[in-house]
């Protein structure tokens, strides 16, 4: 796997000014971006979010998942703190791609849950690969992170890469009547950690 840094630019947003860093996975032919705010090359642990692309949630405002709400809430939390990083990885549909995600949505419309739908299409429940992060972290000089996630597998994957995760911060937001079963499946079958009485608001 070869991850190549391409270029950086300013990215003004509703939450403030971020820097956007482009990276290319030349083996897979995928492009990824990292958003940073403030001074990231210090010994102080950095507030961080690893966000896998979700076109339907991030850009089309779907209520079937909590992805768009999680992305916006991460940007808000980083802006409030004044420094942080978001790794935006092109791994749509937990790694199965956009068109297969639409196929999975159809199966969900017919009664399957999100894990069953992926498996009926011949995929694993979660096909994402976090090994691409190591080169990005090293290039940016990030020494340790406080990770906003409900997914303990994500923490374990980073620690196995040698990335220093000093703290896991719950990142609950975006619950609505359309994604209650989806969130229940993430908790029951994928091991995500949710406290339904402690929902954060983005």
Descriptive tags:
8 helices; seven-stranded mixed β-sheet; 202 residues; alpha/beta
Strand content: 25-35%
- Number of helical segments? 8
Strand order of the largest sheet: 1-2-3-5-4-6-7
- Gross morphology: globular
Show unreliable segments: none
Mean pLDDT across all amino acids: 90
What share of residues is helical? 25-40%
How would you spell out the order of helices and strands?
A: EEEEHHEHHHHEHEH
Q: Pairing-aware structural class of the strands and helices?
A: alpha/beta
Assembly type of the chains comes to: single chain
Biggest sheet character: 7 strands, mixed
Radius of gyration: 17 Å
Instruction: Count the E strands.
Output: 7
First CA to last CA: what distance? 35 Å
Provide structural commentary.
With 202 residues, the protein is α/β, with parallel strands linked by helices. The chain has a 7-stranded mixed sheet, sandwiched between helices. The chain starts with a strand and ends in a 12-residue tail after the last helix. Helix 7 links the parallel strand 6 and strand 7. The mean pLDDT is 90. Helix 4 crosses helix 5. The chain has 8 helices and 7 strands. It is globular.
SSE blueprint:
Elements: E1 3-13, E2 16-25, E3 30-37, E4 46-52, H1 55-59, H2 67-81, E5 84-89, H3 92-95, H4 98-109, H5 114-120, H6 133-140, E6 145-148, H7 152-160, E7 165-169, H8 180-190
Parallel strand pairs: 4-5, 4-6, 6-7
Antiparallel strand pairs: 1-2, 2-3, 3-5
